[in-house]
Structure formats: structure tokens, C-alpha cells
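for the writeup, i need someone to sanity check this before i put it in the appendix. the sequnce is what the collaborator sent (i think, or maybe the updated version? ugh). structure was predicted straight from it, no edits. if anything looks off just tell me and ill rerun, i have time this weekend
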Amino acid sequence: MRNAERAVACVVVGLLGVIALRRSDGAPVDAPADATFATLTVKSLRIGGPKGPVVTIEADATGNGVLTIASADGKPAVVLAVDGKRSGLSVLNAEGRECAWIGTDAATGDGAVSVAAKDGTKRVSLATDADGGLVEVRNKTDKVAVRLTVDDGGAGVAHVLRGDGESAVELATDKSGGYVATLSGDGHGTTFVGGAESGGRVEVLRKAGQAGAGLYVGSSDGGYVQTNGSKGLMTTYVGTSANRDAGLVHVNDATGGVMAELGSGGDGGIASVYNTDRKVVVTIAASKGLRTGIVQVNRADGTVGTEISERAEGSALSMKNATGVDVAWLGASSNAQHGLLVLDRKDGKRTVELGSDEFGGQLLLGAGTPTNHVALFARATGGQLELRTPSGGDGVLAGIGPDGGGVNLFDTKGTRTVVQSH
């Protein structure tokens, strides 16, 4: 030590000795006078309190500066320190455990904040990562329970995790907007509420993460509910049709092909059943224009085979052959509203007609021409039989008149040749 420094030290020690002696005698002590130093170098600076220093400024074992603020009982409460890895402000509880800290992260050098429980276990941390800020809340087992962060696209993400630290709820954004997703804990989603290109969507997912059922808005702005099979193919659709903007139900097979359809048309409802070739084989609908009921049973290729309908004249049953030609028709006649059965040849030409009129039944037989070759009637006086030539001329007329039965025979020219009657 240089002589000047020794002299100053002696003076200071002497003054402290005098003050101590005067205090021991009970005499009043004057406060020391203010002093100004250009540079004051000490290893430790302490401000005393009732039970020990309440402020300490010193260097740690490695030479880094440390500022400690203690409570009245001398226990450290706040420590401002730096070391080779980080620097920051530490807040201690009564047991001396760190309960809050603000400073720089030891690994990245970025700013960081942490809040701990009374036992010193970290509970909340505020830090940064490569994409932005990061907030984590931990449970009592030191597992992260809530995480707020930023994704690689710069958007916010919130995670709510299970007790074992596995993600359970995710609140984030994608190209369609915000979404909320729940997860099973093994990385697979269980539900999803968010957006799609055409609007909102809600999905319930299987344990493998594939959508099992969903609520969507379609491309034509109509809503629909969709369920999917184990292979991810649609099995049912309940929603709005894209072409009619009306209600529509689809029931599909395991391959995603439609098997049944219930919808709404311009004249009313329509229900269709399909075969495995995706051909309609049964249709129940409101007929176009008439708005009356109609049932169609089709062949395997989808062409109509049998049709039951309701017309302005009454009910009707129509049957076709394999080529699609009408060969049988049963219903109410359009002119007299009586029952009528019509049988046609495979080429569609009429050969049999069984009907009813105001007198009774009638049977007409032909050869596919407009002329009937055989006619059997019920008349007011009794039955009547007519046999006609291919051209429609009279051949045989037999019947019962007011006075009894009679038979008329005609030649090829239509001239009556035999008359036998009563």
C-alpha cells in the first residue's frame, strides 16, 4: 500500500475509533460529514440494518458483480447478478428460494421471465424462440400445462396440455382462418372447429386422426353433415344440394358409391335406390308437371321396367319389356274413367284390351292393327260377340237382343248371308 493510502486508512480507522468510544460513553455522535471521492474501490459495500446488511454490493467468486437487497431480518430478498451464462434480477422468498426471475436466457441470450412456487419449482416462464415469444405454464409435476407461442408462419398458437405434458387442445390459425382442435395425446386430433375454403367446418375425428363425421359449408354456400367410413370414404350426406339448393340425403356403400338418395325437386320430393352399378333401380317421387305420386321399378341398367303413377284420370300401372317397350298397362281409362287393362305385343302394338263401360265389361282382341278382330261386350240386353275381318269388316255378330239371341254371318264383301235370331 502506498504511503498516501496508508495515511487515509489510518485517519478513517482513527475516526471510527473515536466515534465508537463516544458511543460507549453515551455521548451524542454527530453524523459524518459528506465526502466526495473521484474513485472509491472496495471489494464489498454493505448497508447495515437491524439484523445485518440490507444492501450488499460485491463480486462473486468468479469476479462477476452482485447486488443483494435483504429484508430487515437480513435475509436476501432481491439479487441482481451476472455470470458467464446469464444476467438478471432474482426475487427470493423468506426461505431463500427463487420465486421470480427476469433477465437473459442462458442458452440463447434472449430476454426471459420466470415465476416459481414457494419451493422454487418453476411454474410460469416468458421467453422467446426462433419464431417469436413463448409463454409456458407448468403444473405441480413440472409438466407444461399451457403454452402460448408463435408458429413458423408468424401466427399465434395456444396449447392446453394434459397432466402428462401431451397436447390436448390447440388454438391456432391456418390458411382458412382460426381453429380450435382437440387431440388424443398421441399427436392425433379428435375434434376440429375452424374454417375451410367455403366457410366454417366442424369435424369429429377417429383415433387415427381421420375425419369420422363433419359439419361443413359447401361450395354453393349450403350447409351439410357428412359421415365417413373407416377408409375415409363418405357414407352419409345430409345437407343442401348444389344444383337445386334444396335438402338432400345420400346413403353410400363402403366404397363411397351412392346407394340411396332422398331429395327435393321442382315438383316435390324424390327418393331413389341404386344398385352396385350406380344405376337407379327404384324411384319414388312427385311426377313432373302433375305433382302426383309416381313409383318406378327399373331394370339393372337403370331403364324403367314398371311404373305406378297417379294421373288426372286416375291411377295407372305400366310395365315394359326388356327393350323398354310398353307391353302391359292397367289403370283408369282416360275417356270413361272405368277400369282398363291393355296388353301389347313386344313391338308395342296393342293386341288385348279388357275394360269396362256403363253397361259392363268388354274384351277386345286384335293383331296389332287399329282394327279389333274379336270384341266381346256386355250390353243392356245381354252379351254380344263380334268377329271381324282383318280389314275390320263384319264377319260374325252374335248376341242377345230384347227378344232373345241371334247370329248374323257376313261374306267377305260384308253382305249378311245368314240371319238366325229371335
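The two ends are 171 Å apart (CA to CA). The longest helix spans residues 3-24.
thx in advance!!
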